[in-house]
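Lab notebook page, bench 4
Experiment: in silico fold of construct C2
Operator: M.H.
Input chain length: 477 residues
Purpose: comparison with the prior construct
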Amino acid sequence: MTRQKETLTQEQDIAIYLSPAKRTMVAIALLISVFGCNFSFRAFSIALPHIIADWDAMELYTLGATLMTVAMTVATVVIARVTPRVGLKQTIMVGLGIILVCNMLTLFAPNMLIFVLLRILTGIGNGIVCGQIAASMNKIWEKAKRGTWIGILGVFQSLTSVAGPMVSGFLVDTWGWQSTYFVISAFQIAGFFMFLFMCPKDTKDRFYKPVKFDLLGTISFTIFVIALVIVCSYGNSLGWASPRIILGFVVALIAAIVLVIAENKADEGALLPWKLFKKDSNFIKIFLIAIFISLPGMAQVYFMPLYLQNVAETSATVAGLPFTILSIGSLIASPIAGKIYQKTGKNKLIMVICGILMSLTTLVYGLWIYPEVASKGLLVIYLLSFIYGLGYILTMTLPYNACSEYLSTEDVGVGTANVYMGITLGSSVGLAVLQALYNKVSASADIGTGIKATFICSAISGGLTILLALSLKKNSK
């Protein structure tokens, strides 16, 4: 690189310098890769009832999803430290390689254990890829073009949310659940070879400043979450008072104690901002909002397809339509909520309204859905999905906005970064709790009643977010 180019890129604050032509191709490769990853999330939730049916393991229905979420979160944290040193090209190719290998092996998984292990590894690959997308767009483009490419990224993510469930359902109905993995792999292969042949070897972050990695905190957090997930998944079948379940609780408790100690001592680079928890009650509330509001979403993503396919006996295509409609509602509501927030600054009002929309529709599902829904109530489910989608923005952006409104100026960055950890806990431990409830109720009643119970529990969780949002109070910054 010439000195003139070096000066130019320094002025433009481009952390990863690429020639203009290469820059566009790398951005496209990133978009294709994240499209494949997001499509896999949608396809997995639609195909899961068919996959689990082959092994008669309904008590472990969500285990692969919860542990994959944990693996993805940990991988995201770790890779944020590794990529600037090693290079964007190298880490993305490793992530895509892991996903491709796991996709192919999943097709031949002989039992539930191997399937779950492959989902965990897939989560690592997804964490490596998805954890770098937005940051990478900021690093390869000059300031004037970053907004455009981040917007394009948002469009790609929206496309998968809208089209993913319907396409996945069609694939499952037409060629079986295995076909979804071939489609997912096609995107990953395209992204892999684009990085291999079109991306320069040197893609290190030139402005990276090493930050101490919170190893003890990361390990203890991982053990804590995994222990709770496994306990919730096996508690009903083994017995909640069995030695192995009690041991799981003990392991989780010890890991939680170690996590608190580690985070209390950690400073820069801490996994969880323990000092902020102690300092500001608003952050505790925002963190809890991120956890509790994730449960209605998990019920929609995993238990609605299960209900429609296994209880109402609809096709996978029909089972995917509610989430497509939900995504359309969210796409409509997001810019409207954004403009209201920009004009009024009343994030609390928007949070409460969104919380009510999500909680009430989820409660209606829990009180109303019945086996004959396929012939009598699909239109109502579609309408409820749209209304739910109007409030779905709460899980995506509003907790982040709340950090900027209710935290002090010096704490906004740390608080915003850790909202994702709250969402992770809700999507992993929260989903495992729903699984435990489903297992307990289904064992004493039937599958439909078990699914209803998860929706009612999720609605209560959504109601807690409304109370937490109402209790937020502005501090003097």
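Observations: Residues 1-209 form a domain with the Growth Hormone; Chain: A; fold (CATH 1.20.1250.20). Residues 20-53 form the longest helix (34 residues).
Next step: discuss at group meeting.
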